[in-house]
Amino acid sequence: MSDAIDIANDLTQSRLEGLIASQRAALRQQGTPECVDCDDDIPTARRALCPSATRCVHCQTHHEIRQRQGMGR
Ligand SMILES: [Zn+2]
Question: Which of 11, 30, 52, 62 is at 20 to 30 A from 22, Cα to Cα?
Answer without folding.
Answer: 62
